[in-house]
Design brief:
Helices cover about 80% and strands about 0% of the residues. The radius of gyration is 23 Å and the shape is globular. The chain has 20 helices and no strands.
């Protein structure tokens, strides 16, 4: 079979092969897509170490300044659910250039922000553009590569996206330590974004399975209100579980998301009827996200498992460094290394897991990864000061590796169960699940940690006061994180039921 025919997206015809990227540009196109996706998630956490300077400049408190990240995430929660529709409706190049244009505009506004409101506006514009890129990356990469490499390609895309938020604090910390203003952080990023947009215009070709879909305005409105309220409400609750605003926003988000889901299923049924009647393109409005394809048990279980895995990610990314720095009496730099090193190791294992999926299927990777994940959190539950940096670091690495094994292979399993034209819907659904899971994870893990620490610190303070000794010990922080870890271990032991549903069936993907 010729190289051109290998690149055909659907029926292998010469016409479609000619419309696909030339073989010599395929790898270049993938590199451009991956770098852009890395950049968009890199921007998510680039202000995590710059918020202190922002607070001082404008006299803000923590609850206000945290919206530099929450605003970005809420904006992503708007664009992620509609990413599949946009990709079906527009060319790959158009979606890519528009995404980078929004990111460039947002970064430029951030670099010249005269006020906090302007900064948040820029972050929201960034988030709207960033929400489209992960779905575009996964769907394009899977169409540009052979089905038998699906697991490795999915893992590689996940690694590229996952490393972005981890390297951003190191970049920002280095720039700020060198004496640069926090606004300067956005200048190199805006230049890189602009260069990528230009490269994308010339190097990104169309691999989308396009259709003349009509935009359902009500679906978009419900999506914006529902997911914005849900993610925003959960972020408010992460700061205070007694916040009436947080509970009201969360409740509103759940109700509107249910209405949105019902409408997507209704429009999907109408679309199926239109196709059954022999219409090449449905005359009715179609769903922005095809939820009908996600009704099968393995895919529904996979989406639920992704939400739960994001809870683990938040526990490791947010609570873990908060506990080990005062718990072990180490510097912020050492604690960042204790977070980054296990993460980098786990991403290498993610690529290995992708290769295992291609050879042996989902059972070995998903069930094996879940087992490692549970063991890692159980061991973290026994964290003690005496274990030191190396002991606790090894346990954390096990938990990271478990997540890295399961996450990409669950996604690859779901991709293998649908036809190629539905892959953007699966990617968009999984990215939406990650957004919701990430917001839930912060609230859940921070809530458990805070409650456990309040109990332990109160008891230790009373004992210290009566004995005339010092204040709270480092072990109180580690023990509180231990409660979080044991809770997550139990959660993932129960989630093994979902993992079994995901992998039930053939040992290898049907299109391998």
């Amino acid at each position: 079979m010729s190289q051109e025919r290998d690149l055909a997206v659907s029926d292998g015809t010469a016409r479609e092969a000619d419309e696909s990227p030339r073989p010599r540009f395929r790898i270049t196109m993938l590199i451009v897509l991956m770098v852009a996706s890395f950049l968009c998630l890199f921007n998510e956490t680039v202000l995590s170490v710059g918020n202190t300077a922002i607070m001082k400049e404008w006299g803000l408190d923590y609850n206000t300044v945290q919206w530099t990240m929450s605003g970005f995430l809420v904006a992503m929660s708007i664009s992620v659910p509609i990413a599949a529709f946009v990709i079906h409706r527009s060319s790959t190049r158009t979606v890519f250039v528009c995404s980078l244009l929004l990111i460039t505009v947002g970064l430029t506004l951030n670099a010249h922000s005269p006020s906090f409101a302007a900064l948040i506006t820029g972050r929201v514009i960034e988030g709207l553009g960033a929400g489209l890129l992960p779905t575009l990356l996964f769907s394009s990469a899977l169409k540009l590569t052979k089905p038998r490499s699906q697991g490795f390609v999915t893992a590689l895309c996940g690694v590229v996206i996952g490393l972005g938020p981890s390297f951003a604090p190191l970049y920002a910390g280095s720039m700020l330590s060198a004496g640069f203003n926090w606004r300067t952080l956005f200048v190199p990023l805006s230049i890189v974004s602009l260069v990528l947009m230009v490269l994308g215009y010339f190097l990104v070709s169309d691999v989308s399975e396009r259709s003349q879909r009509r935009l359902d305005l009500l679906s978009v409105i419900e999506s914006v209100i529902g997911f914005t309220s849900l993610v925003g409400g959960i972020n408010v609750l992460a700061m205070s579980l007694t916040s009436a605003l947080g509970w009201c926003l969360t409740a509103l988000g759940i109700v509107v998301c249910v209405l949105w889901a019902r409408r997507q299923l209704h429009l999907g049924a109408l679309e199926a009827d239109a196709k059954a009647a022999g219409e090449d393109e449905p005359s009715r409005k179609v769903p922005v996200l095809n939820l009908a394809v996600m009704k099968s048990a393995p895919i529904a279980a996979g989406m639920a498992l992704i939400v739960l895995l994001q809870v683990a990610n938040m526990g490791l990314a947010v609570v873990y460094p908060m506990a080990i720095e005062p718990g072990l009496g180490i510097s912020a730099f050492v604690s960042s290394l204790m977070l980054m090193c296990p993460l980098l190791i786990s991403q290498c294992f993610a690529l290995f897991a992708g290769g295992l999926f291609d050879r042996f299927g989902a059972k070995a990777t998903v069930l094996g990864g879940m087992t490692v994940l549970i063991i890692g959190f159980v061991l973290l539950g026994f964290s003690r000061v005496q274990m030191g940096v190396w002991g606790i670091g090894v346990f954390a690495t096990l938990a990271f590796v478990g997540v890295a094994f399961v996450m990409p292979t669950v996604q690859a399993r779901m991709f293998s169960l649908v036809e190629p034209q539905f892959i953007p819907d699966i990617v968009s659904g999984s990215q939406t699940s990650m957004q919701v899971g990430g917001a839930l994870g912060t609230t859940i893990t921070m809530g458990i940690f805070s409650a456990a620490f309040a109990t332990r610190s109160t008891a230790e303070s009373a004992t210290a006061a009566s004995a005339g000794t010092g204040a709270v010990s480092g072990q109180a922080y580690l023990s509180s994180f231990g409660v979080v870890s044991f809770t997550l271990a139990v959660l993932y032991a129960l989630a093994l039921v979902l993992a079994v549903i995901v992998v039930k069936g053939s040992k290898r993907p049907h299109n391998a």
